[in-house]
Every structure is written in C-alpha cells, then in structure tokens.
C-alpha cells in the first residue's frame, strides 16, 4: 500500500509541476514588481527549477510515507547520466572557440545561397544546425542554434511574435533533426538497442523524412520573416570586435573535447573527467574564452534530474496506456503525451511493452519526436534553449502557451512527413 500511495502522490506532484511550468510567466511578472517576496517569485519563475523543486518535495514525502531508506534507494535506482551529459555538452558547445567555429561554418554555407546574407544565415541556423544534431547530439545543436539566434537576431527589443515563431520552429526542428542516427536523440537512444535499430535503419526510416520536414519548416519561417531579417540582424558589438581572435589550435582542442564528450556520452566517469580537464584548459587561455555557461548548464541538469525523479514513478499508468493503443492512435497519443512528460521517458516505457509490432514501434518513436517541440519538458534539449533565450522575451520568460501555438504548425509538418507511407 505505501508503494502505490507513493505512486499516486508522485503523479499528483507531476501534474502540479506541469501546471507550475505553464504558470511561469505569472511568477515572472510578480518578480518584476520588486515586492518583498520578489526573490521567491523569481525562483518560482525559473522554468529550469520547476521539476527539480517538485522532485525534492517528492523525496521528502517519500521519506515520510515509506521511510528514508526507501527514498534513498529510489534515488540510487535512477540513472542521472543524461542530466550530467547535457550539462557538460551544453557548457562545452557554448564555449567561445566552438561558437566561433560554428559561426564560420554557418556564414560559409550562407554565402553559397543566392539571397540576402542576413536571410540566408538565419535559414542555415534553423535548418543546418538542427540536422547537425544527428552527429553532435541534440543538446549540443540546441545550445549552438540558440546562442546564434540570441546574438544575431534576438537581442533587438520587441519583435515578440517573430521570436515565438522562431523558437517554435527551432524546438521542433531540433527534436526531429537528431533522428538520422541512433545515438543523438534521447528518445531514439532509449530504445535503439531494445528495438534493434542502428544508424542505417534510422537514416532510411526516419532521417530523410525529418530532413525534409526541417527544411520545410525553416524555409517557411525564413520566407515569412524575410523583411524583419533584412533589417534586424545584429552585428558584432564593439567589445566583440576588439576581442582576441581565437587561434585554430585552441578551436581544435575544444573540438576534440566536444567529440570526446559525444563519443563518451554513456560513460559519465569519462566525460566528466574530460570536462574537468576542459575547464582547466579554458583557464590556461582566458584571452580566448568567454564566461563558461556553468550556471545555465547546472540549471538545465537540475531540471532534467527532477524530471527523471518524478517521471520514474509514472510507469504505473503510462505503460498500460501506451500498450493499449493502435498504431495510428499511438502516434498522435505519443505526440500529445510527450508534451507533458518527456519523449525519452515515453519511448523507454513503450519499449517495455511486450509483443509489439515494428509498425507500433515506429509510431511510438515518430510520435514522440514529432511532439518534442511543443513544451519545455517535451525534449531534453529544450530547457537549454529556454535558459539561453528566455531573457530576450517580455518579462524574461517564455510563455508555454505561446510556445505550443508557435510550434503547432511545424509539428504538423513533421507529423505529415512521418506518416507518409514507406
């Protein structure tokens, strides 16, 4: 009985956390009034802290209901490799040498397009960088794309409509852009071994569909925003122009670290040790570095860790629900459920259902990645994008409701591609 009671309490807290996520703009407005409790409202307005806070409440309740030993044992049973990896990859990918390298690549590709440079650069950021997530992982792609958008297009005050459209497309494109390989997208990674899917399978069954959807979404957004883009691209600031040029040797070291972290993504002892060496290296050459994104990375890791703690006790209702759905219903149900759960957790629970067909498995994963751009909790890289871009929006917060509306059309484009007959 205590075990089932804990599961019910965990589900109630999970729902409260979701409601809290959608209430973040309210807390942000209260914080901006600078009242006596502004600090508390500010903490509650940090979307990255929401699930971590309610996970902490769950652990306390679990200790009271089932005993401290059970609470500790439950935490020990959770796998926190993904939050640690997202923290490390976010900090490394956001370092100045990596950003300089990606900026050079983006500009080189943009020059090849026969359109205005500001427009072509925006298109490359929205299309090429998300697709690169299939090789450098989705969290790294999200970090790079969000930083390029922030520094190139989002620093200009106002234009909230354009920013919401851009972030909606970005989140959807990142979610589907990582499915060309079997290791880069969290919802695919969770089931690749269980389903026997390798990168060849992913490329032929998911990858080409995702690439077309990403290009369509980026093209439509770029076309609709072309007038703003021509007048709104922000050049490098005076301080950025004066900073020391990053040598290719330093860029090379950072790139090797990034590759090492990606290759060692399943081995926290390795990528955390490599990260410690990376931090030391950045202090050895401070003239080629900006401040590392430690705080933002830790907040995103805290968010994902909280999601793992709360989500780990949702199996009692979610697994049975998935197992009883027909493939087409499963696709749309998976897309909807992932918006309020986390697509990696959803596909993992689906992989535990016995006696499934190949079509059922395809629909499960396709629906999960399709819905990965609808909310901050739908896909593991999304909190990284929130952390980087939120201060560019009114009240320093991104409205979850407006994000859903902005991501709805690109989500339907992705759905249309994944539902095409083989």
Major sheet, described briefly? Answer: none
* Number of separate structural domains: 2
Shape: globular
Helix/strand order, N-terminal first: HHHHHHHHHHHHHHHHHHHHHHHH
Tell me the Rg in angstroms.
21 Å
Distance between the termini: 47 Å
Helix content: over 70%
Specify the structural class. mainly alpha
Total of DSSP H or I helical runs spanning 4+ residues? 24
Poorly predicted regions: none
What share of the residues does DSSP label as strand, in percent?
under 5%
Characterization of the model:
The protein is an all-alpha fold and 422 residues long. The chain is built from 24 helices and no strands. The chain folds into two domains: 2-77, no CATH class; 81-418, no CATH class. Helix 1 packs antiparallel against helix 4 (50-66), helix 10 (160-177) packs antiparallel against helix 13 (199-224) and helix 21 runs antiparallel to helix 22 (358-370). The model has no long low-confidence stretch (mean pLDDT 90).
Could you give a quick summary of the protein structure above?
The protein has 422 residues and is mostly helical. The chain has two domains: 2-77, no CATH class; 81-418, no CATH class. It is built from 24 helices and no strands.
What key phrases describe this protein's structure?
422 residues; 2 domains; 0% strand
Please outline the helices and strands.
Elements: H1 2-22, H2 24-32, H3 38-45, H4 50-66, H5 68-77, H6 81-93, H7 96-111, H8 117-136, H9 138-154, H10 160-177, H11 186-189, H12 192-195, H13 199-224, H14 226-232, H15 238-242, H16 248-263, H17 268-284, H18 294-311, H19 315-323, H20 327-338, H21 343-351, H22 358-370, H23 382-389, H24 400-418
Helix pairs in contact: 1-4, 2-3, 4-5, 4-18, 6-9, 6-16, 6-17, 6-18, 7-8, 7-16, 8-9, 8-10, 8-13, 8-14, 9-10, 9-23, 10-13, 10-24, 13-24, 16-17, 18-23, 20-22, 21-22
């Amino acid at each position: 009985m205590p075990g089932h009671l804990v599961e019910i309490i965990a589900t109630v807290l999970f729902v409260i956390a979701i409601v809290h996520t959608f209430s973040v703009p309210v807390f942000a407005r209260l914080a901006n009034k600078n009242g006596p409790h502004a600090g508390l409202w500010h903490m509650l307005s940090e979307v990255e802290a929401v699930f971590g806070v309610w996970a902490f409440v769950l652990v306390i309740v679990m200790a009271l209901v089932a005993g401290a030993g059970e609470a500790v044992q439950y935490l020990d049973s959770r796998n926190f490799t993904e939050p640690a990896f997202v923290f490390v990859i976010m900090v490394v990918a956001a370092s100045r040498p990596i950003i300089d390298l990606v900026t050079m690549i983006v500009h080189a590709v943009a020059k090849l397009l026969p359109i205005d440079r500001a427009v072509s650069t925006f298109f490359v950021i929205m299309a090429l960088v998300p697709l690169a997530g299939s090789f450098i992982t989705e969290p790294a792609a999200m970090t790079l794309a969000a930083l390029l958008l922030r520094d190139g297009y989002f620093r200009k005050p106002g234009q909230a409509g354009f920013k919401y459209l851009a972030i909606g497309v970005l989140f959807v494109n990142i979610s589907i852009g990582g499915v060309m390989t079997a290791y880069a997208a969290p919802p695919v990674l969770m089931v690749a071994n269980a389903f026997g899917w390798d990168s060849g399978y992913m490329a032929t069954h998911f990858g080409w569909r995702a690439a077309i959807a990403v290009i369509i979404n980026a093209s439509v957004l770029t076309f609709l925003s072309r007038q703003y883009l021509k007048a709104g691209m922000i050049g490098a600031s005076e301080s950025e122009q004066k900073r020391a040029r990053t040598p290719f040797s330093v860029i090379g070291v950072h790139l090797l670290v990034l590759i090492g972290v990606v290759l060692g993504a399943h081995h926290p002892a390795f990528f955390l040790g490599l990260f410690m060496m990376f931090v030391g290296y950045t202090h050895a050459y401070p003239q080629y570095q900006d401040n590392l994104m430690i705080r933002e990375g830790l907040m995103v890791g805290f968010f994902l860790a909280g999601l793992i703690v709360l989500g780990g006790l949702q199996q009692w209702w979610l697994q049975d629900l998935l197992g009883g759905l027909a493939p087409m219903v499963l696709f749309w149900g998976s897309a909807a459920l992932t918006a309020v759960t986390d697509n990696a957790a959803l596909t993992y629970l689906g992989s535990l259902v016995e006696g499934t067909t190949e079509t059922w498995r395809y629909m499960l994963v396709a629906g999960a990645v399709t819905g990965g751009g609808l909310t901050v909790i739908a896909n593991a890289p999304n909190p990284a994008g929130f952390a980087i871009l939120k201060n560019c929006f009114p009240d320093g917060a991104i409205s979850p409701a407006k994000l859903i509306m902005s991501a709805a059309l690109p989500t339907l484009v992705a759905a249309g591609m994944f539902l095409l007959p083989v």
